Amino acid sequence: MPINYAHVQQQLCDEFVVVEEIVLGGNKLRLEDRELNHCLDLVFASGTQAYREVLLGCILAKLEDPDIDVHKPYMAHGKHAFNGRTLDERVVNPFLHDRRVPCSRGPYLSTFRRNVAFVAATRRGLRDKEGYDALLHILRHTNEAGGAQVGALLRNVLTRFIELRDAADVGVSTSNE
């Protein structure tokens, strides 16, 4: 089934509002799985912004269609593939920019070009191999998880994007000393 980008965008916006209220209330959403949390820490600490951006797109794609294989972000990958670049251009990247979250101009135009699949062999051409290994672990979990688990993962990832935005948002001093 093709991805309904308007539906995905609305779902992302709705979830973000809920998560932002939780974070502004002083709470952090973390998963019970320690290894998964550690991998998320690595992805969000990585200097390769594309890792976290494609992760968000993969989670959204899986929520939209449970039959999607999140390791296949190009339609040329065949059965169960999805168009990750279009999802990023229409939903993920505008969403992150609109909410002032530090992000690239597009992970499918930078790090993950030319029909790359999210598999171990892709690791060779990347700088942050540890971050990519963590991304692969999260994607394996995403592919195997049920809808509720993928929804919890989305909320956790959104929490981390909010924390990233807030850490990057430096106020300007107005004092005249």
SSE layout and pairing:
Elements: H1 5-24, H2 34-45, H3 49-64, H4 84-98, H5 129-144, H6 147-168
The counted number of beta strands is 0
Q: How much helix, percentage-wise, in residues?
A: 55-70%
Separate helix tally: 6
pLDDT averaged residue by residue: 92
Whole-Å distance between the termini? 61 Å
Low-confidence spans: none
Beta-strand residue fraction: under 5%
What summary fits the major beta sheet?
none
Secondary-structure element series: HHHHHH
The backbone outline, from C-alpha atoms, is: globular
Structural class: mainly alpha
Rg estimate, integer Å: 16 Å
Number of domains: 1
Would you mind describing this structure in some detail?
The protein has 177 residues and is mainly α. It has six helices and no strands. The protein is 57% helix and 0% strand. The chain has one domain (5-164). Helix 1 packs parallel to helix 4, helix 1 (5-24) crosses helix 6 (147-168) and helix 2 packs across helix 5 (129-144). The longest helix has 22 residues, at 147-168. It has helices spanning 5-24, 34-45, 49-64, 84-98, 129-144, 147-168.
